[in-house]
Amino acid sequence: xxxxxxxxxxxxxxxxxxxxxxxxxxxxxxxxxxxxxxxxxxxxxxxxxxxxxxxxxxxxxxxxxxxxxxxxxxxxxxxxxxxxxxxxxxxxxxxxxxxxxxxxxxxxxxxxxxxxxxxxxxxxxxx
Length: 127
Known about the structure:
CATH class: Alpha Beta
Largest sheet: 4 strands, parallel
CATH architecture: 3-Layer(aba) Sandwich
Structural class: alpha/beta
Helix content: 40-55%
Distance between the termini: 22 Å
Shape: globular
Mean pLDDT: 91
């Protein structure tokens, strides 16, 4: 995985996906990191530990340019963050566990800093 580099000039990109979407998601991620004019800080949020391993492996094979940084977080990491970030918002915390796709709405904010730009992508979006 890329070494984390703090740089406020990087655009913050979030994508919630499972390893099942890798056959098409890798094409989108490769295209994004190859064609982006901006430096990116990409956070991929997935389900379990096995999905995290699969996504890290896929990202390692993409040849992501070094001007971008990326990380993969499993749901357990999001759940931990939700305990703090959503402590005052019990309805949003409960919403996360409705339909699995609802995490595409709730989980990126768990990894973002308050007030920062968030670009939320779906794994089947191509650039």
